[in-house]
Amino acid sequence: MRPRPDRIERLPEQYFARLLARVAAAAAKEGEEVIDLGRGNPDVPPPEHVVEALAAAARDPAAHGYPPFRGIPALKEAIAARYRDVYGVEVDPEREVAVLPGTKTAIVELALCLAERGDTILLPDPGYPDYTSGVALAGAREGRVRLDPDAGFAPDLAAAPRNGVAALYLNYPSNPCAASAPPGLFAEAVRFAEETGAAVVHDFAYADLVFGGLRPLSFLMEPGAKEIGVEMFSMSKSYGMAGWRLGFVVGNTEIVERVNLLQDHVRAGVFRPIQEAGVAALTGPQATVEERRALYEGRRDRVVAAIPDTLSDSTFYVWWLLPQGLTPERILAESRVAVAPGEGFGPSGAGWARISVATPDDRLDAGLKRLSRLAAP
Questions:
Q1: What CATH number is given for 48-283 in this structure?
Q2: Whole-structure pTM over 0.90, yes or no?
Q3: DSSP string spanning 298-328?
Q4: How far apart are CA 126 and CA 328, in angstroms?
Q5: What angle do CA 33, 36, 40 make, to 5 degrees?
Q6: Range list of β-strands (E), the chain
Q7: So what CATH class is 6-45+288-375?
Q8: How far is 16 from 14, CA to CA, in rounded Å?
Q9: Per-domain residue ranges for the chain?
Q10: Which of 117, 173, 195, 241 is the most exposed place for a label (fewest CB within 10 A)?
Q11: Whose CA is closest to 177, among 145, 225, 135, 139?
């Protein structure tokens, strides 16, 4: 057999696969049960009416053929209505919405749609590890923009390169930093795009999970945003539909068309009953969205109260500045609690760890009891 193509060899080690393997190896050793607070896997299921919509749609014999390649109109209209009603943003459902099997797919496909080989894609540092996979598959160069803890984890765009930049990725609320978008950032990002010709890609996966009375802020609310960029919206976090794989790219008409064209060639749409369930989620009762947000906020409060030097105003994570000498490896060995090592999210994550509160209350509290002993001064 011929050697692997370069595009496969370029792929980085999958961070979360490595993390899960590390937890499994620790669990296989004798000792207390390992408590995994490293993985961000929603533990609250979707609303019942959404599950019922999926089941009802799946019983229709016509549902099992190929769906429309570019998504059913009702779903695109539902996400456009959400943007109008929640964010005050008018979106053309036909020309400014692409339907995808999850925003992880969108992360890779947008890199392919925006960058030529050798172009630079700027990523937040620290940031979601799978952004690097899209850069690798596109044959692009990876650039890092440091998120400054002293500036609310805003990216230092003044220090970012200006030449050969195809795209700038942003993510607020931020994974892993658990921070909302700092004031003025989106306006600065629009100016950066206008000056450089780069596109802006905003990852809005944790849109509804904001705390302390904060308002969810869509990038598309910023004047000029649709002229230079798009936003990725996911059904995973707001509605507990992580395993269903349903997401959207919303915004700039040209970028949306590129994504749709690529998908015309590589997939045959998203299973129609999942799309019907997405319509039910977006247009049905929204009380469970607030219940989910409040649940995570309460868990966040317990983590911040138990462990010094922890930060979170959004997402279902807490970003922990580790005490001197304490490492995720030591935490796992001594307390049998797994946290996500910060360096896996980029060089600026070194010395930090991510704690997930997408964990049942009893396990979270047991893990916090163990961690607080290690974190005590």
A1: 3.40.640.10
A2: yes
A3: HHHHHHHHHSSSEE-SBTTEEEEEPPTT--H
A4: 16
A5: 160
A6: 35-36, 97-100, 120-125, 141-148, 154-155, 165-171, 199-203, 229-234, 247-251, 310-311, 317-321, 337-338, 340-341, 352-356
A7: alpha beta
A8: 6
A9: 6-45+288-375, 48-283
A10: 117
A11: 145
